[in-house]
Each structure stands twice: as structure tokens, then as C-alpha cells.
Amino acid sequence: MPELPEVETTLRGIQPKVDQQTITAVIIRNGSLRWPVDKTLPKKLAGLPVLQVSRRGKYLLLKTEAGTLLIHLGMSGNLRVLPIGTVVKKHDHVDLEFSNGYVLRLNDPRRFGSVLWHPACEGSVENHKLLSKLAPEPLSDAFNGGYFFEKTRNRKVAIKSLVMNSAVAVGAGNIYANESLFMSQIHPQTQACSLSRKQCDVLVANIKRVLEAAIKQGGTTLKDFMSPDGKPGYFVQQLNVYDQGGKPCTVCGTPIERIILNQRASYFCPKCQKLKHPPKSPKPTKLTKKTNA
């Protein structure tokens, strides 16, 4: 699933060809995405210049005077900037054509992505229900150790789950949560409320560090992600624990272990990331023989 570094890579790839360009046509080949694509978008957007191209969390935002288009890549989506007239391929669902001769094309095999419209009459796009509860951007000053420490208080959930909660931390999805926790020497099952302020400072710093490194490398390509120019992301070559189960730890040589946490694969080094208070296993149910009255 494209996470924040992949979405930021996509933003940087499409921005030069989309920003300040006028939309000449919108083509919807298959509007049955995660949410139905507004069929009136061709009428609403034709003739409007794109005033700004930005990102909020994992959403790409194309702002016009009439409103903002929100694009999410879902599980397997990608956006490509191509010359108008480029042959359409399977799973090419939505096109935005521009006056400069380029088309912004959404390809999404699983159709979990989305193209949503937020009209200007409803106020800032930050008020949209999908954006209004998002945490501060992870690379901003607002996302810091003090903020994160407060969010962990009285939270008995596993720290990895909290890191992946978009209301607490935006963009640190499964890959980068695993890597950040490894760099911070924190076991993914550690209760969030047990972290000290110092540990929160270190974890936040490492979340920023791993996201910045991934963006610099163009994201992480595991299965589906390709940047707008068709190149894969190379951060996969720098992964320490994610998808490294059974391989030696890059620090101590201990085999990396894999567990399932909240239905997601979690990878860690049992020596570098010791779990001080393992979660209690449920007591076995005592079986009794049925007797006939």
C-alpha cells in the first residue's frame, strides 16, 4: 500500500506538469472505486486552472477556484503524467487532461483508491471528513516528542498500533512503523503508556528520519508502487527488519522475528527490541464432563 513517502514521491513527480495548468477534460472510464467518482466532475472541472498541488497525509490535493480534488492511491494505485493520446491500459480508470498536452492518469488494479470532490462552498478542504481528524504532518514541527508523549498517556495499546493510528501519527504505515521502532530499540508490542518522554523523543526523531530517507530514495517498491516516471522506489534496499523474517539483525546478528499484530505483519529483533512486560496469555479454559441429570 502506498504510504506517505510514496505519496510524497508521487506529488513531486506530478507537480511540475500539473500545477498552474488548466484542466481541459476529465475522463472517467470506471468510477467504481472505493467511493463512486462524481459523474459531474467533467462539467465541474473543465476550463479550471489548478491553483495548487499539495499533500495531506496520504491524500493528494488539486485545488481549483471551485473546490479541491482529493486523490488517494488506495492499496495498489498509481498516478502517471503522460502525453495526451497515450494508449490506455487495463485499470486506467480516471484521466485529467491539461492544456499543456499532458494527462494525469490514475491506474488502480484493486480499485481501493478514491477520487473525491470537495466544493469550495463547504470551506477549507481541511474540513473534509477524511482530513479533519488527521494528526499533524510527521515532518512538521508540530509532530514532536512532547506531542507524542501526551498521546501515549493512558493508552495501553501496542505502540506499533498507535504509531499507525492516523489520528496520532500520519503516514508511518506498516513498513515505516517497523523500521522506526527498530531504530528506537522499542518492541512493537510495548504498551504505549509505558514509554518515557525520552523514548518518545527518540521514536519521533526516528519516524522523521526513516520517512525522510524513504522520500529521498523515491519510496519503497514491494509489489505495486511506481513513481510517476515509472521508476521503482529504492528504499526497500535499506530495510532493516520489514519483510526480513529469519534474516540476521543488521546490528547484532540475531534472527529477525515476525508476529501478527492487529492483522498486520510486525518484524523485530528480539535482542535489540526486548519486550520488558510481555502481554499475558489468556488462561486455558477448564473442561468439565457433562453429566446426565
**What is the percent of helical residues?**
10-25%
Radius of gyration: 22 Å
CATH class of the largest domain: Alpha Beta
Shape label: elongated
- Which stretches are low in confidence, meaning pLDDT under 50 for 5 or more residues running? 221-227, 232-236, 284-293
**How many individual domains?**
2
Name given to the CATH homologous superfamily of the largest domain: MutM-like, N-terminal
Largest sheet: 4 strands, antiparallel
Which percent band covers the strand fraction? Answer: 15-25%
What structural class is derived from the secondary structure elements?
alpha+beta
Mean pLDDT: 89
Distance between the termini: 58 Å
Q: Compute the number of helices.
A: 6
Q: Care to count the β-strands?
A: 10
Topology-level CATH name of the largest domain: N-terminal domain of MutM-like DNA repair proteins
Order of helices and strands: HEHEEEEEEEHHHHEE
CATH architecture of the largest domain, please?
Alpha-Beta Barrel
Strand order of the largest sheet: 1-6-7-5
Chain-wise SSE layout:
Elements: H1 4-18, E1 23-28, H2 41-45, E2 52-56, E3 59-64, E4 67-72, E5 78-83, E6 92-98, E7 102-107, E8 114-119, H3 145-152, H4 159-163, H5 174-183, H6 197-216, E9 257-261, E10 264-268
Antiparallel strand pairs: 1-6, 2-3, 3-4, 4-8, 5-7, 6-7, 9-10
Would you mind describing this structure in some detail?
The protein has helices at residues 4-18, 41-45, 145-152, 159-163, 174-183, 197-216; strands spanning 23-28, 52-56, 59-64, 67-72, 78-83, 92-98, 102-107, 114-119, 257-261, 264-268. The protein contains 6 helices and 10 strands. The strands form 3 sheets. The chain has a 4-stranded antiparallel beta sheet with strand order 1-6-7-5. Helices cover 22% and strands 20% of the residues. The chain is α+β, with helices and mostly antiparallel strands. The protein has 2 domains: 4-127, N-terminal domain of MutM-like DNA repair proteins (Alpha-Beta Barrel); 145-268, Orthogonal Bundle (Helicase, Ruva Protein, domain 3), CATH 1.10.8.50.
